[in-house]
Specification:
By secondary structure, the chain is of the alpha/beta class. The protein has 18 helices and 20 strands. Helices cover 34% and strands 17% of the residues. The protein has a seven-stranded mixed beta sheet, covered by helices on one side. A six-stranded mixed beta sheet has the order 3-2-1-18-19-20, with no helix packed on it. It has a three-stranded mixed beta sheet with strand order 4-5-6, with no helix packed on it.
Length: 595
């Protein structure tokens, strides 16, 4: 049963559909003049979907209902969740749980570095605004958001919808906005709450959460006048368009500067009429450097002014400023084809160097749904520390907190993982109905082992395991390698193929015969996503490093493509399994040095 607090909030939201928090209704945060430390929380990739949203035109559809309140629920299918890198439904409970944790910890400043909604639909943006408004008004919390590639999917509003909502019987049905072709041809339920909003609508609805000056702010500025810049066709400088940018700098309490960088780049496709735009998902800072040069200059000026005025500066955006694969990019490129394994999202060494040369020392990013810390040395005797904030909607779910020491100009960065979340399994009964429906109708089905999850941490892990077979192996991995892995079931088979199993030490041989390929694949993704927080024993990490050390010193054969793949994967795992920065570490904000 959905916990009482979630029910209360849902009912409160329902009664407050027209409620809009005024900037003047926030509790004014006390001045930091006498404060030694200030805590800032970072909640990335929430992908909020409002399971309590009200839809029009559903009289002929029996929606599932909450057991306690009998309120209709707008729930997306488990089958869809197990094909997506993010959860859709449980995020609602997780988000409320984390906000409650922050209330208990008395953290007043909360940053949302992008993908705070699931595709920027009106129902989800409005739900986010109501929830943030409630916590802001009741607990004096301030929220600072910056869009991710899912917050607008494109810079301007477009027709959209989803095909995978569930009836009470477990059958999927679609809901689309009125201008979508499926509505115009009467093939679905129609509701404009499912269109994809653009910047104008999203920023207006979330105006009080970083996109306007609050009465208590010491400083507020944006790099672009009216949040707009001109982008022209490089082949026809008379063919231009005004594009939005949501970046801002705010000093919410004296001495603390939060720099929100809108790193979305939606490249116009000038050859198309009407004009269309590339998605921002794989663009990031590699594209931003050329697309938004003024923004880069602004970052430099902010860094310079912060030092001159002795301000404590932290930057955040949706996209990473440094690599996030533990320096295994070269090996990954040799295994995975161009565009796979999210490799286009990795900032190039030149991009990372340009960003580090701005003088920025600490940046928090999302987008990748993983935990990692990258260090990029600048040419100015400083270091850029890029902190990847895990998603609340994927393994291993966590949020970050930066405790700023204003006098010493340091930041203690801590990681807070989420295992026990009340209400995480409230919808499992509906998923059972879905499984039964799909089974009865001979539809492709999901592994319902996930419905035995004991806590949210286990649930996100099972979700990740489902993605390995349902998505990752099919989309990212070379087909011939997948076929070989399916036919060779233990790591001992790998070394047999490379003709060096007989040279492995007895202790290591035991591990090779004990670890299955399936277990190794799971460990591969657990380490990729969780890094230091991954559910991998210290001994297992050591084993993967020892295998690589043996391989480097042996005469194992790497003549065939399969042998080369295996050797590369062993090397990648050795890098993934090493600890880089821990769950808690301190940064000197003047130099970027880890202290």
């Amino acid at each position: 049963m959905i916990r009482l607090k979630a029910l209360w909030l849902a009912l409160w939201i329902g009664l407050c559909i027209t409620f809009k928090v005024s900037a003047t209704s926030y509790y004014e945060v006390k001045s930091a003049v006498k404060m030694e430390t200030v805590k800032v929380a970072f909640l990335a990739d929430i992908h909020l979907h409002d399971i309590f949203a009200n839809l029009h035109n559903t009289d002929n559809i029996e929606l599932p209902k909450d057991v306690g309140s009998q309120q209709p629920l707008l729930v997306r299918s488990m089958y869809a969740q197990l094909h997506s890198t993010r959860l859709f439904n449980e995020n609602y409970f997780v988000f409320l749980h984390v906000l409650d944790e922050l209330v208990e910890k008395e953290i007043k400043l909360v940053v949302l570095p992008g993908d705070f909604t699931d595709d920027g639909q009106p129902i989800n943006v409005r739900a986010l605004a109501r929830i943030l408004g409630h916590y802001g008004k009741k607990y004096g919390m301030r929220f600072f958001a910056i869009p991710g590639n899912h917050d607008p999917v494109k810079p301007f509003t477009t027709p959209a919808g989803k095909a995978d909502f569930l009836t009470a019987q477990g059958k999927e049905f679609g809901v689309y906005s009125y201008q979508h072709e499926k509505c115009m041809t009467k093939q679905s339920v129609c509701d404009d709450g499912l269109k994809n909003w653009g910047y104008t609508e999203i920023l207006s609805t979330l105006n009080d959460f970083g996109f306007s000056k609050h009465k208590s702010d010491v400083l507020y500025e944006t790099p672009y006048e009216n949040r707009e810049f001109i982008w022209c066709d490089p082949h026809d400088m008379n063919h231009c368009i005004t594009m939005p940018d949501a970046s801002y700098l705010v000093e919410p309490i004296k001495g603390v500067w939060l720099m929100a960088i809108d790193a979305n780049v939606y490249a116009p496709q000038w050859q198309n009429s009407p004009l269309t735009f590339k998605g921002s998902s794989s663009a990031g800072y590699n594209a931003l450097i050329d697309a938004k040069p003024l923004l880069l200059k602004w970052i430099k000026t902010v860094v310079k002014r912060s030092k001159e005025q002795n301000k404590t500066l932290i930057a955040f955006s949706h996209f990473p400023m440094g690599e996030f694969y533990d320096n295994a990019n070269d090996e990954l490129h040799k295994v995975f084809s161009r565009g796979h394994f999210s490799l286009p999202r990795v900032p190039t060494p030149l991009t990372a160097q340009i960003l580090a040369d701005t003088g920025l020392t600490l940046h928090f990013a999302g987008h990748m749904h993983l935990n990692d810390t990258a260090l990029v040395t600048s040419n100015r005797d400083s270091q850029l520390v890029n902190v990847q904030v895990p998603s609340l909607a994927a393994y291993k779910a966590a949020y970050k907190v930066a405790e700023l020491n204003l006098a010493k100009q340091t930041a203690l960065v801590s990681t807070h993982t989420l295992n026990d979340v009340p209400g995480f399994n409230d919808l499992f009964g509906l998923y059972e109905e879905e499984w039964l429906y799909r089974n009865r109708h001979n539809l492709s089905n999901f592994d319902r082992t996930i419905l035995s999850s004991k806590n949210y941490g286990d649930f996100t892990k099972q979700h990740l395991f489902g993605l390995i077979s349902q998505r990752f192996l099919k989309r990212d991995w070379p087909k011939n390698l997948v076929a070989w892995l399916n036919d060779n079931h233990y790591l001992a088979d790998w070394f047999t193929d490379m003709q060096c199993l007989n040279k492995v030490s007895p202790n290591l041989l035991i591990q090779l015969k004990a670890v299955s390929t399936k277990e190794w694949l799971r460990d591969f993704y657990l380490l990729r996503n969780g890094d230091v927080t991954a559910d991998i024993t210290p001994q297992k990490r050591i084993t993967y490093q020892q295998l690589n050390e043996f391989l480097a010193q042996s005469t194992c054969k790497t003549d065939t493509q399969t042998q080369q793949y295996l050797a590369l994967l062993i090397k990648i795992m050795a890098k993934f399994s090493k600890h880089t920065q821990g769950e808690n570490f301190s940064v000197d904000l003047k130099t970027g040095e880890i202290i």
